[in-house]
Design goal:
With 245 residues, this protein is α/β, with parallel strands linked by helices. It contains six helices and six strands, in the order ββαβαβαβαβαα. The protein has a six-stranded mixed β-sheet with strand order 1-3-2-4-5-6, sandwiched between helices. Helix 1 crosses helix 6. The N and C termini lie far apart (50 Å).
């Protein structure tokens, strides 16, 4: 049984209009005295595609290097249906800096759907701390965007089949039940893949990434509202790779 950690609980007073997000203090959603030490190399990357389009629906992806792998493929699959933002990082949700960075990401365009994942960088984290921090992080997202659909995503399988991933995914399922939120089982998708679709212990080749993106595209498409028409993706010559197509 997980021990209960002392946490600061927020009671948010929300106005009916959010532009772009409700004013919520992330510090009220942090656990006390986290033992998470971090990793030798920490990294973070975030993109907002088609930022100036404020009328079309937007999906925010939150995850790690797996998310960073499938996001461009998924974006292309959904290009005429919605816009994409994503934040991929190495940070465990119980890291004291995690919510500060998430808060910056959530200060961007308002999402209609948030796909939330955390776990592969948490295999050695204290599981009680991780669970409490995970639930609070999701509640923080809900407080920032109470009109958004928040969907939880479990972790992909490791090529070795490490049982620590199963432990994290069991906790993610517990959180989905506690929060009464949908849970997408991408672990089963990757579990069914031949081992030739991995390019290393954690990551996938193009065929494996495409299969993950197809799974997520189907799930996201089923949750999108009927929009006013086809989304027009616009590029910019000032993007990190030059003009974005």
């Amino acid at each position: 049984m997980r021990k209960k950690l002392s946490v600061l609980v927020a009671v948010a007073v929300l106005s009916p209009v959010f532009s772009p997000a409700a004013d919520v203090d992330y510090r009220k959603y942090q656990i006390h005295d986290s033992s998470r030490a971090g990793e030798s190399i920490e990294w973070s990357t975030s993109y907002v595609y088609n930022r100036l389009d404020v009328k079309s629906q937007r999906v925010l992806l939150v995850g790690d290097s797996i998310c960073n792998g499938y996001q461009p493929v998924l974006r292309n699959m959904l290009a005429d249906k919605c816009n994409i933002s994503f934040w991929a990082s190495s940070y465990c949700v119980s890291d004291p800096i995690y919510l500060r960075q998430l808060d910056a990401v959530l200060s961007g365009p308002k999402p209609d759907i948030v796909i939330f994942n955390n776990g592969l960088h948490s295999l050695v984290s204290n599981k009680d701390e991780w669970y409490e921090a995970y639930v609070l992080a999701v509640k923080f997202i809900q407080a920032k965007f109470p009109d958004a659909q928040v969907v939880l995503l479990n972790c992909t399988k490791l090529r070795s089949g490490d049982p620590k991933v199963d432990e994290i995914n069991e906790l993610t399922a517990d959180a989905a039940s506690e929060l009464r939120l949908p849970l997408l089982d991408i672990h089963s998708v990757t579990d069914a893949m031949p081992k030739g679709m991995w390019k290393d212990a954690y990551h996938f080749n193009g065929a494996g990434i495409k299969r993950q993106a197809e799974f997520l595209a189907g799930e996201i498409s089923s949750r999108l509202k009927k929009g006013p028409g086809k989304v027009v993706q616009k590029g910019t010559a000032t993007g990190p790779s030059g003009e974005l197509k």
